[in-house]
Specification:
This protein has about 180 residues and is mainly beta. About 10% of the residues lie in helices and about 40% in strands. The protein contains two helices and 13 strands, in the order αβββββββββββαββ. The longest helix has 11 residues. The chain is globular and about 45 Å long.
């Protein structure tokens, strides 16, 4: 039995083929995990979603920073790339200021084939240029792209469990839609 092209096209659209899942800008996997970023909700405050996906590890514990009574501090770095290709760091002011007394490590468990995400305020990611600060929303409007990075490869091996992820992840490039 043959399907006509129209029926096949309708079936692919119904299954969601051909469209990006959630507009997430995915990076390349490292040690079975990949990192992506996407714009989140715009109200009441614009947000950025940082998404982790376990693509093929049996178990994955992702070390992501520390948390105290003041709140979480995630070890996620951001950078912007200008239209001319120049990369520059973005300062992340998400999280409480000052020293975190009694901080405990944040680890996210990600089962195989599953995703976990953290959501941060886009307005607290700032780019500094010539003494002026500009929120990431302004950079995106100027055709810059933004990517996130997580690097846990520098921590001592003896402090890790067998299932704890170790490596360096870089997301894809987030651009204004």
């Amino acid at each position: 039995m043959r399907f006509s092209g129209l029926v096949l096209a309708c079936a692919l659209v119904a299954l969601g083929a051909g469209k990006p899942a959630d507009n997430i800008a995915w990076g390349e996997p490292d040690h079975g995990v990949r990192l992506g970023i996407a714009l989140g909700s715009r109200a009441p405050d614009p947000q950025i979603r940082v998404v982790f996906e376990n693509v093929d590890r049996p178990e994955c514990l992702m070390p992501l920073g520390s948390e105290s009574a003041k709140g979480p501090v995630y070890d996620v770095e951001f950078a912007a790339t200008s239209p001319s290709g120049q990369e520059t760091p973005i300062f992340n002011f998400n999280g409480p200021p000052g020293i975190q007394h009694g901080a405990k490590p944040i680890q996210i468990e990600i089962p195989r084939g599953q995703k976990r995400e953290i959501v941060l305020s886009l307005n607290k990611l700032m780019y500094l240029e010539k003494g002026q600060s500009l929120p990431v929303t302004g950079l995106l409007a100027k055709h810059y792209s933004v990517h996130a990075m997580v690097d846990t490869s520098g921590e001592a091996r003896w402090t890790r469990t067998r299932d704890q992820w170790m490596g360096r992840l870089v997301s894809g490039e987030l651009r204004q839609q």
